[in-house]
Amino acid sequence: MKRWKQLIGLATVLLLTSLPFAIQEPYFLRVIILFGIYAIYALALDFLIGFLGEVSFGHAAFLGIGAYATGILVERYQFSYWAAAPVALGLAGATGFVVGFATLRLRGVHFAILTLASSEILRLVALNWQEFTHGSMGLSVADPSVPLLGQGRSFTPATYYYFVFFILVLVFRLLARLVASPVGNSMVAIRENHSLAAAVGIPIFKVKLMAFVISGVIAAMAGVAYAPFVGIIGPDLLGSGYSALGLLMVIVGGKGTLYGALVGAFVFSIITEMFRFANELRMMAFAVFLLASLVLNPGGIVSLLFRAWERLTRARTGVVAEAQEK
Amino acid sequence: MAALLGVANLTKRFRGLTALENVNFSVEQGEIVGLIGPNGAGKTTCLNIITGYLKATAGRVIFQDSDVTNLEPHKTARHGIVRTFQQTSVFLNLSVEENVKTGSYLQIRTGLAQAVLRRPAYWRDWASAAGGVDEILARIGLQDHRHTLATNLAYGNLRRLGIAVALAARPRLLLLDEPAAGMTPTEAGGLMALIQKLRSDGITVLVVEHNMKVIMGICDRIVVLEHGRKIAEGDAHSIRHNPEVISGYLGTRVKV
User: Fold this and answer.
1) CA B20, CA B10: separation in Å to the nearest integer?
2) Is the dihedral of CA A178, A179, A182, A186 positive or negative?
3) Cβ-Cβ contacts under 8 Å for A225 (sequence gap 6 or more)
4) What is the mean predicted confidence (pLDDT) over B216-233?
5) B59 within 8 A of B246, measured Cβ to Cβ
6) Which chain B positions have a beta carbon within 8 Å of A213's beta carbon?
7) Cβ of A195 and B53 within 8 Å?
């Protein structure tokens, strides 16, 4: 089993590194990079929704803070992208701490509404603080230069690809370790039985706040990568549309597994692009598909994949056992 | 020597309603103490205040010479006061093993950095936690159900798992809220044996229970509440023959 996992891991890494060479069409590569950014964002939300069990309806705020902070620092204060990025992440972490501190004592719907309100406030700030954000005109963010290779060499689609997937793999590994640790254990305990978790000594508020800040910083990473990649960002990035997109990716993909977030991001980037030829029909079909998948399969797409994998491995071990009997 | 737990002049008012009024009692190290009374007498309110789920209106709770009145639940747990709950005292969607592992949160000193870096100390912590889980499952008799989801356990085992989760937090004082509720006589018998075994392992127990067979069978001392006041305190024999307790709660002619 362990050998299999290593092989799959190695194959994934090889596939990911060779992809930009195999794909000559820049448009396809852009869609794949978008998938990577969405996946980082969806992972951040799954950490919160799937493990801690708190639903944030305003997580796009972190996406937006990452993107805008990077853009503003680069444009107005002549920061290099690589100096702006950590500042943007720090700012997102601080915002997460303040918003979390104010809202996390409330649970469920109350928490959800407050996160929605917080992100709406930030969207209005981005819309109206024209001097910094250029309001609805949008803020343009230049391609970063490739580090260590001197000035003048800007990011190409291939560089973006490696950059985004490097972050994605890193974030995935980090979160996988966290959720498998006692930290993740205590988050799940809070989700499953709030009172009992406190009874055995889990400091609920502290764990929630920590998870919220981590989730916010990771969502901001997606924003930091997204800003120069799309080149121009608008206040919508902080709005409920992107918050809903995050929720949909996690829920359609399957929450509480991390893999589900990847599947969800895949569905909302690559599959939606594949059906672009269908135009408006595409979104309608998509809505129907969404409702159907939620009603028929609340565990998300990933639960189907897991079940199939289980059946496969069980069939295999069954065969081995039979062979040994003979 | 001072008592392990001292409850002094504990009073709780919910707006107009007085749930507890000037309740005093103590629990000595190594004792099994029962807290009984009719529904609405304030038994669970009392547990909730001792463990920090409710704030007292007045009075204090002293544990091992330190004042733990109105501390948050996770802090009272850190002092060694751990409780179970009437309804669900387990994590239903986790396996038996995961339930106990989660209960042992206070025993594992793994912070964020440790969780990500996974230095050798991390694995040592995990291994010792796993050892603790084995020991508790054996103690509570659930080792054959290790990988069963809690929600799939038989009722009696589910209640035992609730106690196992609390034990994993290494309590000095274990507060049980109606542990025998809904149990068959056989299951209740097993529970009595278990509680007595816990006491011989050095855990002090305060138990709220309506099953008089359990209460009379295991308690060294019984505290009786009615309408938020303590009306009697004593051993099983004296409680059973106390006229006030009989008229207020037990009813005439108890046979146990």
Assistant:
1) 7
2) positive
3) A36, A37, A40, A160, A163, A164, A167
4) 91
5) no
6) none
7) yes
Q: Which residues contact A244 (CB under 8 A, 6 or more apart)?
A: A57
User: How far A39 CA sits from the closest chain B CA (Å)?
Assistant: 20
Whether A225 maps to a domain, the answer reads yes
Instruction: State how far the Cα of B38 lies from the Cα of B23, in Å rounded to an integer.
Output: 16
Nearest alpha carbon to residue A12 among A236, A254, A262, A182: A262
CB A59 within 8 A of CB A119: yes
User: Looking at domain B1-80+171-256, which of 3.10.340.11, 3.90.550.10, 3.40.50.300, 3.20.20.30 is its CATH number?
Assistant: 3.40.50.300
Residues A204 and A303 grouped into a single domain? no
Q: pTM (2 decimals)?
A: 0.89
Which of B116, B126, B149 to probe the A interface (max A CBs under 10 A)?
A: B116
Taking only Cα atoms into account, the Rg of chain A, rounded to an integer number of angstroms, comes to: 21
Check whether residue A132 and residue A248 sit in a common domain: yes
Model confidence pLDDT, tens digit, residues B40-89? 889 999 999 999 999 999 999 999 989 999 999 999 999 999 999 988 89
The region, left, alpha or beta by phi > 0 then psi within -120 to 50, assigned to residue B5 is beta
Domain of residue A319: give its range.
Answer: 280-326
Nearby residues of A12 by Cβ (< 8 Å), 6 or more positions away: none
Under 8 Å between Cβ of A52 and A191: yes
Look at residue A10 and tell me if it is in a domain.
no
